[in-house]
Write a structure and sequence with these properties.
Layout: E1 14-21, H1 25-36, E2 41-45, H2 49-52, E3 60-62, H3 63-71, H4 76-81, E4 83-85, E5 88-92, E6 95-99, H5 101-105, E7 109-111, H6 114-128, E8 132-135, E9 138-143, E10 151-155, E11 162-172, H7 179-182, E12 190-206, E13 214-217, E14 224-228, E15 234-240, H8 251-262, E16 274-289, E17 292-293, E18 296-298, E19 304-305, H9 313-334, H10 338-341, H11 343-366, H12 373-386, H13 390-401
Parallel strand pairs: 1-2, 1-11, 2-8, 5-13, 11-18
Antiparallel strand pairs: 3-7, 4-7, 5-6, 9-10, 10-11, 12-15, 12-16, 13-14, 14-15, 16-19, 17-18
Helix pairs in contact: 1-6, 1-9, 9-11, 11-12
Length: 407
């Protein structure tokens, strides 16, 4: 509970200016920003280092986010190894339509799988910048966040002992099911949620991408997508009923549907390969308000989730991390509170913008499979407009790439 006192422990509790709960992209970026300013912090993570460095997640990073990482000395490997994408391709009505958003805007996407970014961030934080991090901790709890003396308790995995850490601020970066979001008083929290009523079968295939860009298949059987991850591994998505069992999708059925939904005239069949991951994602979004309660500041999926429809999740996490990391540094080193005071408002502007784009894009992806002839017709009209109206194409490109703010 928020107001519960931390359990007693032997010895003197340790103190850090900031405790970061969660070692994903948001938490590790905040930790690195703090360490670059010589601010001590402690990162707590319930999983092992090996697990978070291998956990398959997003891979599309917007250019402004990469520039923000580069500005903070966190993009060296990314810039050397990431693929650059300047176009995407829609496939519908048996034809292919390529949208060259790089030519229209001068901007592009970086494709760099999240496990690689997390590996880079952990190494930089723990091995280079000397930040303290505890992996495999259990029973994490935050206390007194509505006072100026918050603390975080956890059980040390090596000794089984209770540890208590006092701090000035807690950064809650532990995701949708983490303890920091659950620590907010329920009567003071509003969770705005939207369910799309569809599922996506998320697949990783040991197969090279069958095209040099992201593919979006808008088919009467349902949406299909190809998202290149590396020369050897490709992410695919298939629209399916929410709550579907991955076991309902054996190898043969998966590839038959992918071939049909992404197949178009004059294009070779997809290159097939062994499926190394199959899981069903129920498409939903949520936004938690407020993102700040006392000395607890939420970031990333702890504060908001945007379905992978528009590939925005990791970008929003990094946006939060840049703002919160910089704001904490300003407060702790110079006493400047303006960044902390405006943190939630600045985050939520982008969050709601990306949520709205995700809803719009969902109709483009899924409208043709809705079983409603009117909805299918308007969806196809929307798709055709992207490739007949320069204004519509430019508007899509701007939203697909994200706004060009500097971080």
């Amino acid at each position: 509970m928020t107001h519960a006192s931390p359990p007693a422990e032997s010895g003197s509790p340790r103190r850090f200016p900031v405790v970061v709960v969660g070692a994903g992209p948001a938490g590790l970026t905040i930790g690195n920003i703090l360490r670059a300013a010589s601010v001590d912090c402690l990162v707590l993570e319930t999983e092992t280092r090996e697990f978070i460095e291998q956990r398959a997640r997003a891979g599309v990073i917007e250019e402004w986010a990469v520039r923000g990482l580069e500005k903070r000395g966190l993009a060296r490997n990314l810039l050397d190894r990431a693929e650059l994408h300047t176009a995407c391709e829609f496939r519908f009505d048996g034809e292919r339509y390529r949208l060259h958003y790089g030519e229209m805007t001068g901007s592009h996407h970086f494709v760099y799988p999240q496990p690689l970014l997390v590996t880079d961030l952990v190494r930089e934080y723990a091995d280079v910048r000397g930040g303290e991090i505890r992996f495999g901790v259990r029973d994490v709890a935050v206390h007194h966040i509505d006072t100026d003396r918050p603390s975080v308790s956890y059980i040390c995995p090596e000794t089984g002992e209770q540890r208590v850490v006092h701090c000035d601020f807690v950064a809650g970066c532990d995701g949708a099911r983490g303890v920091t979001r659950a620590s907010l008083p329920p009567e003071r929290v509003r969770v705005a949620r939207h369910d799309y009523g569809i599922g996506w079968l998320a697949l990783l295939a040991e197969a090279p991408p069958s095209a040099d860009c992201v593919l979006f298949g808008c088919h009467e059987n349902g949406f299909a997508g190809q998202m290149p991850r590396s020369p050897e591994v490709t992410r695919y998505y298939l629209q399916c009923p929410p709550g579907d069992d991955p076991e309902n999708w054996p190898h043969e059925r998966v590839w038959a549907e992918l071939q049909q939904r992404l197949g178009v005239a004059g294009v070779p069949p997809l290159t097939e390969g062994r499926l190394i991951e199959k899981r069903v994602l129920d498409m939903h979004d949520y936004v938690v308000e407020p993102m700040v309660h006392g000395r607890l500041h939420l970031a990333g999926d702890a504060a908001h989730l945007v379905a992978p429809i528009a590939a925005k999740g990791m970008n929003l996490a990094l946006h939060d991390a840049f703002l919160l990391g910089d704001a904490l540094v300003a407060h702790l080193t110079t006493g400047d509170d303006s960044g902390l005071a405006g943190y939630a408002e600045a985050c939520l502007r982008r969050v709601w913008d990306y949520q709205e784009f995700s809803q719009w894009l969902s109709e483009v992806y899924h409208g043709t499979a809705a079983g409603d002839p009117f909805r299918a017709g308007t969806t196809l009209a929307r798709l055709r407009r992207l490739f007949t109206s320069p204004a519509a194409a430019a508007a899509f490109a701007e939203r697909y790439l994200g706004t060009a703010e500097r971080y």
